[in-house]
C-alpha cells in the first residue's frame, strides 16, 4: 500500500507544490521587474524636476544679483532725469519702490578721462557732416579757451523733442568727442561748436545776404560803371555768414550787400502808396443822414461800428 499508493500520492503532491512555488517565483520576479521599472521612471521624473528647479533657482539668483548695480569706478552719480534735454520729461528721480521699464536710463557715471559734446544740427546742414570731421568747441564757462574735437556719431533719425516747439523743424543729434585737456569741465555746460566741413587756404567769398535767386539763377548785384546789374555766380559752401564764390565775380568787384527791389516790386510799392494817398483824400460819407432814418436801437448798433470803419481805419 505504501509503495503503490502513499508514495505515488506524495510524489504528485510534492511535484504540484514545486510547480506552485515556481509559478509564485515567476510572479514575484515579474512584480519585481515592474516595480524596478516604475521606480526608474519615478527617479527620472524626480531628476527632471530637480534640474528644472535648479535652473529656476539659478535664474532667481541671477535676477536678485541684477537688482544690485555696482559702479565700475569711483566718481559722481548723476540722475538721468537731471541731465535730460527733454523739457516735457516727467520721469522724476529714481526712488525706492519705483517701477523701472526696460531700457530706461537711470543714472550716469561721468568720467574725467574724456568728455563729449552733444549738439543738434538742422536737416539742411546734415549732408555736410561726416564721421571723423574736426571741430572747435568754445565753452561759455571757460572764456578764452578753444578746445578741439571730432564727430563720433550722427543720429539716423530726427530728434522728436523738437516737434513740440516747431513741427516743421527737424534736427538731428550729433555727438563729438573732445580731445584730452587739462581744463575742468562739468557735465551740462553750455558750449558753441564749429564743425570744419572744408578748408580753403585762398578763396573768394561774399556775405550770404548778398546772394539771391533772380529768374531761376543765383546772382549777386554788381556795380558796373555806376549801374547795378545782376551777375550770375556759382557758389559753394557757406558758414551762415559768408558763402564761397567759385565763379562769376572777381576780387575787387563792388557788389550790393542788400539786393535792390525788382522793377515789378517797385511798381507795386508805388501803386500801394498812390492808393493810400487817394484813400486819405476821400471824404467820409454823411453818416448823420443815414442815422436819422434808423430807429433808436439801430442808431446804437451803428454808433458802435462806425468808429472802426472810417477811411483811415479801412487800410489794414
Summarize the structure.
By secondary structure, this protein is α+β, with helices and mostly antiparallel strands.
Describe, in plain words, how this protein is organized in 3D.
The protein is α+β, with helices and mostly antiparallel strands and 316 residues long. The protein has 4 helices and 13 strands. The protein has helices spanning 2-66, 263-281, 287-292, 296-303, and strands spanning 78-79, 107-108, 116-122, 134-139, 147-154, 171-178, 191-195, 205-207, 212-214, 217-224, 227-232, 234-238, 242-247. It has a 5-stranded antiparallel beta sheet, with no helix packed on it. The radius of gyration is 47 Å and the shape is rod-shaped. The termini are far apart. Residues 284-316 have low confidence and may be disordered.
Unreliable runs, pLDDT <50, ≥5 residues? Answer: 284-316
What's the total number of strands?
Answer: 13
What's the Cα radius of gyration?
Answer: 47 Å
Total helices: the number is 4
Q: Mean of the pLDDT scores?
A: 76
Q: Return the structural class.
A: alpha+beta
Helix-strand pattern, N to C?
Answer: HEEEEEEEEEEEEEHHH
What's the arrangement of strands in the largest beta sheet?
A: 3-6-5-4-7
Describe the largest sheet: 5 strands, antiparallel
